[in-house]
Amino acid sequence: MKKTAVALAVMMLLTACSKPATYVINSSCAGFGLIKASRQDTAETLRQIWVHNRTYRAICSKEAENGRNP
After folding, report:
1. Is 60 exposed, middle or buried (0-12, 13-18, 19+ CB in 10 A)?
2. What is the pTM (predicted TM-score) of this model?
3. What is the pLDDT of residue 29?
4. pLDDT digits (tens, 9 = 90+) for 7-56
5. pLDDT at 41
6. pLDDT interval class at 58 (50, 70, 90)
7. How many whole angstroms separate alpha carbon 41 and alpha carbon 37?
8. What span, in angstroms and rounded, lies between the C-alpha atoms of 50 and 37?
9. Chain centroid to CA 33: how far?
10. 3-state secondary structure the chain
11. CB burial class (10 A; 0-12, 13-18, 19+) of residue 56?
12. How many CA atoms lie within 13 A of 22 on its CB side?
């Protein structure tokens, strides 16, 4: 009897306190940005900077279109 009452109370508390789904905003653009190349960078470093900046633009331009801050 006690187990049933406890189970019923727990179920009532869990269902009564439910909220609408929480949406998580991808804040990846807040943590990284465009990198500027310098004259001292090697060819491989320049390639990596190019890939990084291309990835940043692909991700953050989508977030900017959706009304999120890049």
Report:
1. buried
2. 0.51
3. 79
4. 878 777 776 555 666 665 656 677 778 999 999 999 999 999 999 999 88
5. 95
6. confident
7. 7
8. 9
9. 15
10. CHHHHHHHHHHHHHHHCCCCCCCCCCCHHHHCCCCCCCCCCCHHHHHHHHHHHHHHHHHHHHHHHCCCCC
11. middle
12. 4
Residue whose pair of structure tokens reads 């470093």 in the numeric block: 45
- Amino acid in position 45: T
Residue entry with tokens 């500027």 = 36
- Per the structure block, which two tokens stand in for 10? 């727990």
Contact at 8 Å (CB) between 46 and 38?
A: no
Neighbours of 41 (CB within 10 A): 14
**Residue tagged 């804040």 (tokens):** 27
- 35 phi and psi angles, rounded to 5 deg: -110, 135
